[in-house]
């Protein structure tokens, strides 16, 4: 951070007020008789000065990197503009020849501007202060200034009040009270502002600290609730988000109000901060201001959300570079999240200091400060080093961790066991004692036993682990975990930092273990009690992403870490093997379920060979569910749950020796017999004729419920004399809408359906494709559900179905329709995904499988299926998955003779042609067809 003298030395470089004043005087002289021309010239002169000043400020920010200095320079720039503007208005537009006592006006800066800091796009908050009441002169001056500022494009927040009005309103309105708390004399009769400040201290602040603190903390909690509720979301709001600038401002408001200081440096003498903590406050503020100013300069507006499309540019402006395993943007965001954690630590320090300062309080503060008044402390009998104070776990004295470093783990164990909140003073002492966590403590059997009990607790493991993490204990005790603390993965799939994701996943597993998620995850709820070694499952979930950010594949590297760490935690060799296997395979079940044909026996057989035992299958299912659900809101849905359940059930049968016990022909005959029972109202000859319309794979792939629906759907369509028909059903539990299409078969049927869905804005998740022996296509697609209400979703499904019918009859020009949708969609240019096309004959006995991955966009599935059709390939099934910005689409195909693609040159040509589809990514928006 720059010194005050250095900042002041750089301020005049932004604007020269003498030059501004001279320019405004010349405008007044040149346009004396033309007020409109005069106004336009004033606006142009001041706008040019601001634009030039911003340019200089941006250059200085790039040079010295100080965010606080940049914010102060921009504030000074606006000071000079307002001073010149007020002088111009009072001298040339509304001069006072013989002013009365009421014809006085002071301008005060309030809000962030009152603190003497502005970002390039910040609001300009002003208080026009009058001695008594509004006069015609005062009203005219304020109006003239505001018209100019509005025409400059400034967002001006303003109020015009007398001193008495300001005092009266601040007593009733906490927002006004906060703005006056930070008022800074700017221009005019500044003695009025001095009078306001003195009266405000005496008549408003005195005796109301408890009320103000409660209001500000409640306001902060509500702001966090409206946001993501976590400081570790990967696209944070740097102003309003948890751990952002507004949290720092809230701390300073509280400190100023309670301790009656004007500058942050005074808080050391007041006893609120130590010197290192004050430096931490300034460091956090300077970093956040640098990020905010860069963000505003980059976007050209008051953008507060650090979104993916600007993160890399901000990182590069701040001189972050790439390291092995971490991109430049990931290193920058890791620093951001560490700063956000520091802001949280400072919040805890302030609350603890307030609690110590205020020995008396009201029950209304219990929610925020727990409360101020002290009660008698209770020493724990089983652990005399700890006490319970005001319902929270504290320490007996400041030497408890030095006497026994195991207490650094035991403290959290007791908090979990007893369900106690943790006293801020104890957490502060823990943070100062982190050096005690050394190799000796890490190898201590008791410390590891206690930690394992915390990790596997069904009470409050997530909360306790998060507190351990924020205190720095978790990363020191498990150094491999420490490497992923605050680590962000630069993609649109993960919503949280790696450490937060791991901790959330443990919380989800604990909820499942306690039987609290049975409605959402019925199979996991049924299986988890049958898992014989839950310790291994908890440890595997805690460590499954711990090797992220390393050059090596994180699943393999994570398994190696587990083999080294598990014995230390007290796990047996068998448990260690299980943990390592679960980590190494933790993505396998998800990938198989979402991107493989689960009706293909080869898929199940290959997966069963990986799993090998029913116990591992159960554990892997539960781990996969918790992992996906902890990625972020909206990532888990019922469709993924259904896919995982299907994979589990099919694999369970295979592991038990099923399927092979019955021949293929017998299974077809059994499926037909089951259907015949449900078609008892059909003539026998019609039933037999219907059986002949489907090839054997249909009977093996489609479940009974859908076989019945298909039979009645086809019969009704033919009785109505139609060749093309659609039907749909909604499924709230799975979160999908199922649309079935019956149409004359041709190679572009699926491509046309995909194009129609893209034009309708529907996201295809899966497709089941069947061809009848008489040349009809019977295709079922599953699209993401968009509405909670069934009526709304059915109307949407009807619209999608009408688009599909229009596409298949040629009434809709698909290329143009898809392009229009793509042109309207917002695209993030932040990501690059190297397209990959894999063609393999080893994943299925009947089909060649094409796996395509690359940057997602609207119309991608339409383009891919069209390309496959041009290659004269038949698509037997398609499986569509999206992981943030990355699409992974898998197609089971044959050539026109129904055979696999075996020729090497033909395979290369297919891969080359499909890969060319991604060239369109350079000109198309992001999204999923």
From TrEMBL:
For this chain, one GO molecular function annotation is: phosphoric diester hydrolase activity
Give GO terms for biological process. Answer: regulation of nitrogen utilization
Please explain the role this protein plays, according to its UniProt record. Answer: Modifies, by uridylylation and deuridylylation, the PII regulatory proteins (GlnB and homologs), in response to the nitrogen status of the cell that GlnD senses through the glutamine level. Under low glutamine levels, catalyzes the conversion of the PII proteins and UTP to PII-UMP and PPi, while under higher glutamine levels, GlnD hydrolyzes PII-UMP to PII and UMP (deuridylylation). Thus, controls uridylylation state and activity of the PII proteins, and plays an important role in the regulation of nitrogen metabolism.
What is this protein's record name? Bifunctional uridylyltransferase/uridylyl-removing enzyme
Q: Which reactions are catalysed by this chain?
A: [protein-PII]-L-tyrosine + UTP = [protein-PII]-uridylyl-L-tyrosine + diphosphate; [protein-PII]-uridylyl-L-tyrosine + H2O = [protein-PII]-L-tyrosine + UMP + H(+)
Q: Which family does it belong to?
A: Belongs to the GlnD family.
Essential cofactor(s): Mg(2+)
* Activity regulation comment: Uridylyltransferase (UTase) activity is inhibited by glutamine, while glutamine activates uridylyl-removing (UR) activity.
């Amino acid at each position: 951070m720059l010194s005050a003298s250095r900042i002041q030395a750089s301020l005049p470089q932004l604007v020269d007020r003498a030059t501004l004043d001279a320019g405004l005087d010349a405008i007044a002289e040149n346009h004396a008789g033309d007020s409109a021309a005069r106004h336009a010239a004033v606006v142009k002169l001041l706008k040019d000065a601001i634009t030039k000043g911003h340019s200089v400020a941006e250059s200085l920010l790039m040079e010295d990197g100080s965010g606080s200095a940049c914010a102060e320079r921009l504030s000074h720039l606006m000071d000079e503009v307002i001073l010149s503007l007020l002088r111009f208005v009072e001298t040339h537009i509304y001069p006072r020849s013989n002013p009365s006592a009421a014809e006085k006006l002071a301008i005060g800066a309030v809000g962030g501007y009152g603190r003497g800091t502005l970002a390039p796009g910040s609001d300009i908050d002003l208080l026009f202060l009058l001695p008594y009441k509004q006069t015609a002169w005062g009203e005219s001056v304020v109006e003239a200034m505001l018209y100019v500022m509005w025409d400059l494009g400034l967002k001006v927040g303003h109020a015009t009040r007398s001193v008495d009005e300001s005092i009266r309103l601040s007593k009733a309105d906490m927002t006004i009270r906060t703005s006056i708390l930070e008022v800074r004399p700017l221009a005019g009769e500044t003695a009025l502002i001095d009078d306001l400040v003195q009266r405000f201290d005496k008549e408003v602040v005195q005796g109301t600290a408890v009320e103000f603190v409660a209001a500000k903390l409640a306001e902060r909690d509500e702001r966090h609730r409206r946001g993501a509720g976590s400081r570790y979301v990967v696209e944070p709001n740097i102003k309003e988000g948890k751990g952002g600038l507004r949290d720092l401002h809230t701390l300073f408001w509280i400190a100023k109000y309670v301790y009656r200081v004007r500058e942050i440096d005074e808080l050391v003498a007041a006893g609120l901060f130590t010197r290192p903590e004050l430096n931490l406050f300034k460091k956090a503020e300077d970093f956040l201001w640098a990020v905010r100013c860069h963000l505003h300069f980059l976007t050209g507006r008051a953008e507060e959300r650090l979104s993916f499309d600007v993160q890399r540019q901000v990182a590069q402006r701040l001189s972050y570079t790439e390291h092995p395993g971490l991109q430049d943007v990931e290193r920058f965001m890791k620093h951001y999240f560490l700063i956000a954690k520091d802001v949280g630590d400072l919040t805890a320090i302030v609350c603890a200091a307030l609690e110590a300062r205020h020995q008396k309080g009201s029950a209304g503060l219990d929610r925020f400060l727990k409360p101020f008044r002290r009660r008698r402390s209770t020493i724990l009998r089983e652990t005399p080093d700890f006490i319970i104070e005001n319902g929270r776990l504290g320490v007996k004295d400041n030497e408890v961790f030095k006497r026994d470093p195991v207490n650094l783990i035991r403290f959290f164990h007791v908090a979990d066991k007893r369900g106690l909140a943790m006293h801020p003073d104890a957490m502060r002492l823990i943070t100062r004692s982190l050096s005690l966590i050394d190799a000796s403590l890490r190898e201590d059997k008791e410390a590891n036993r206690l930690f394992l009990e915390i990790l596997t607790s069904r009470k409050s493991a997530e909360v306790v682990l998060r507190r351990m993490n924020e205190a720095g204990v978790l990363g020191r005790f498990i150094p491999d975990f420490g490497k992923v603390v605050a680590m962000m993965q630069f993609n649109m799939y993960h919503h949280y930092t790696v450490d937060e994701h791991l901790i959330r996943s443990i919380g989800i597993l604990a909820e499942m273990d306690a039987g609290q998620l049975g409605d959402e995850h019925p199979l996991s709820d049924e299986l988890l009690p049958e898992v014989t070694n839950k310790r291994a499952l908890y440890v595997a979930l805690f460590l499954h992403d711990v090797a992220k950010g390393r050059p090596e594949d994180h699943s393999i590297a994570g398994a190696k870490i587990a083999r080294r760490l598990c014995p230390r935690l007290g796990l047996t060799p068998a448990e260690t093997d299980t943990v390592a296997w679960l980590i190494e395979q933790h993505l396998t079940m998800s990938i198989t379920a979402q991107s493989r044909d689960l009706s293909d026996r080869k898929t199940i057989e290959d997966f069963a060979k990986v799993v090998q035992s029913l116990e591992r299958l159960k554990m892997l299912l539960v781990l996969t569910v918790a992992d996906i659900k902890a990625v972020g809101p909206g990532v888990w849905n019922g469709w993924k749950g259904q896919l995982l359940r299907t994979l589990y059930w099919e694999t369970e049968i295979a592991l038990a020796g099923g399927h092979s016990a019955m021949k293929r022909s017998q299974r077809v005959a059994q499926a037909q017999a089951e259907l015949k029972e449900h078609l008892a109202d059909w003539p026998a000859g019609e039933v037999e004729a219907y059986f002949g319309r489907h090839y054997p794979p249909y009977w093996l792939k489609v479940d009974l419920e859908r076989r019945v629906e298909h039979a009645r759907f086809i019969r009704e369509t033919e009785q109505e004399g139609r060749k093309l028909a659609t039907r749909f059903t909604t499924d709230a539990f799975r979160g999908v809408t199922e649309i079935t299409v019956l149409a004359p078969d041709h190679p572009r049927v699926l491509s046309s359906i995909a194009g129609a869905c893209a034009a309708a804005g529907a996201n295809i998740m899966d497709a089941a494709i069947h061809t009848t022996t008489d040349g009809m296509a019977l295709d079922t697609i599953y699209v993401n559900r968009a509405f909670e209400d069934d009526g709304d979703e059915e109307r949407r499904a009807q619209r999608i179905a009408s688009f599909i019918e229009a596409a298949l009859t040629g009434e809709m020009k698909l290329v143009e329709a898809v392009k229009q949708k793509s042109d309207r969609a917002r695209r993030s240019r932040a990501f690059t995904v190297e397209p990959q096309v894999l063609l393999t004959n080893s994943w299925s006995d009947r089909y060649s499988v094409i796996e395509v991955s690359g940057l997602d966009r609207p119309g991608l599935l339409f383009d891919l299926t069209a390309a496959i059709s041009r290659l004269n390939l038949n698509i037997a099934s398609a499986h569509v998955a999206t992981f943030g910005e990355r699409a992974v689409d898998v197609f089971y195909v044959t050539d026109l003779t129904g055979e696999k693609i075996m020729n090497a040159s033909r395979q290369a040509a297919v891969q080359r042609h499909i890969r060319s589809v991604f060239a369109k990514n350079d000109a198309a928006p992001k999204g999923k067809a």
